[in-house]
Design goal:
There is one protein chain. This protein starts with a helix and ends with a helix. It has helices spanning 3-17, 22-29, 33-40, 48-58, 69-74. The chain is an all-alpha fold and 75 residues long. It is built from 5 helices and no strands. Helix content is 64%, strand content 0%. Residues 11-65 form the HTH cro/C1-type domain. Keywords: DNA-binding, Transcription, Transcription regulation.
Length: 75
């Protein structure tokens, strides 16, 4: 499992489900838009405190950002 890819896909999935642009989401999370973009493109690793900011902004439990739904769907 590529955890960076799983995390990136989940951030984008939950952001889009909530109807946030990258810019609007970055504002809510207290992060820069280019940082969110880099995360979603798998170009950045991310600190734990920023993971929590993202989960809080998405109003989800943090662990959900690390679940590979492709694997779960195959079970």
């Amino acid at each position: 499992m590529d955890i960076v890819k799983v995390f990136a896909n989940n951030v984008k999935k939950y952001r889009v489900e909530r109807g946030f642009s990258q810019e609007a989401f970055a504002e809510i999370a207290g992060l820069h838009r280019t940082y969110i973009s880099a995360i979603e493109r798998e170009k950045r690793s991310i600190a734990l405190d920023n993971i929590q900011k993202i989960a809080d902004a998405l109003e989800i439990d943090t662990y959900k950002l690390f679940i590979d739904t492709d694997i779960i769907n195959k079970l």
